[in-house]
Amino acid sequence: MNFNLKIFFIAFILSLPFWWGLNIFQKNLENFLVLQELEQYPKIITAQVSKPILNLDKSLKPLRNWSVDEIKINAKSAISIFFLEGEKDQILFKKNSDSKLPIASITKLVSASVVSENYDLNLPITISEEAVAQDSDSGQLKTGEVFQAKELLYPLLIESSNDAAYAFAEVIGAQNFVDLMNLEAKKIGMENTHFVNSSGIDPITKNIGINYSTAEDLTKLAKYLLQKPKILQILSQKEYDLYSIDGLSHHKLSSTNELLGKNHQIIGGKTGWTPQAQGCLLLILKAPGQNQGYLVNIILGSEDRFGEMEKLTDWINTAYKW
Q1: Which of 281, 245, 302, 273 lies closest to 162 in space, CA to CA?
Q2: Same domain, 226 and 263
Q3: Residue 71: exposed, middle, or buried by beta-carbon count in 10 A (0-12, 13-18, 19+)?
């Protein structure tokens, strides 16, 4: 092999990474330019073609709309993610999303999951005196009343009843129930989460500990709950007529989630508030427009959980091109 031929082959091999990189750049540039054209002239483009010009990478959307300024959220922690089955999650906003914070009654989502997986939902559960004595409760359950487990899930999640949470735990023993909650969190992949009770109430004394999690961990929980239609159906209810096991009407439950019915994107969610946790809110929403997929928005440690959640949701809808 003569000298010139050797030089040619060496130059050819060295140039391969350049041409490979140029090809990827060209493909991404073509995708980007088509997206831009579709956004500026959607009617013209769609009129000219009856099928997609390119197999556009789904990960290119949503695109950040930089004409919309960044948002300021005053909560201690917040996150918004977009996810689509089979695709990598996209973080649209985050603030201290890995901070371990008390989550108050968002706890009850894990309690409900434990019940749905480990209890006979036709099981009669009697409300004890200890259950009724739980602090910071908005429920109207009374000592000696009996409900089927599937019915007791409604006050647990709609009214955020601490009585119901305690009653569920009493069936197998409070500590056994909490152990199941921590196993459930581990199964979901919530590595920075720990539970000490079934309701999320603040501890009476400092040495007891408190239920905590992170906004990032709670997105994993929200995605997991999408596989549990019964729980999602309850979380979507603004009101519900509760019945005792004898078929008698008990009372009408009203959701603690003030945003239900105010935004058509909302599938469901869970509130939480205690003096230590302050306002907490988890929402599962449909992605904007005609997009498949979901949003999970979480606010922790807020003095205005509903106002800040509305602000975050509105910003996500406008700060990204869907």
Answers
A1: 273
A2: yes
A3: middle
Cross-strand bridge partners of residue 213: 101
Alpha carbon distance 113, 50 (integer Å): 46
Q: Decide: residue 104, CB within 10 A, 0-12 exposed, 13-18 middle, 19+ buried.
A: buried
pLDDT digits 0-9 by tens, 279-322 = 999 999 999 987 889 999 999 999 999 999 999 999 999 999 99
Tokens representing residue 9 in the block: 């082959």
Helix, strand, or coil (residue 40): helix
Identify whether residues 74 and 20 lie together within a single domain. Answer: no
Shared domain check, 13 and 126? no
User: Last residue of a domain, which of 40, 56, 72?
Assistant: 56
Token output for 168: 């569920």
Q: What tens digit of pLDDT does each residue of 180-228 get? A: 999 999 999 999 999 999 999 999 887 789 999 999 999 999 999 999 9
161 and 225 together in one domain: yes
Q: What is the pLDDT of residue 44?
A: 39
**Spatial contact of 102 and 210, defined as CB atoms under 8 Å apart:** yes
Q: What's the pTM?
A: 0.82
Q: Over 90: is that where the pLDDT of 258 sits?
A: yes
Host domain of residue 287: 64-321
Q: Where a domain ends, among 14, 32, 56? A: 56
- The enclosing H or E element of 305 equals helix 305-319
> CA-to-CA distance for 263 and 271, rounded, in angstroms?
16
Whole-number pLDDT of residue 171 = 98
String of DSSP letters for 194-213: B-SSSS-PPPSSGGG---EE
270 annotated as a binding-site residue: yes
* Co-location of 317 and 192 in the same domain: yes
74 in the same domain as 46:
no
- In total, how many domains does the chain have? 2
Residues involved in catalysis: 105, 108, 160
Name the nearest CA neighbour of 285 among 300, 298, 272, 274: 298
Do residue 190 and residue 296 come from a single domain? Answer: yes
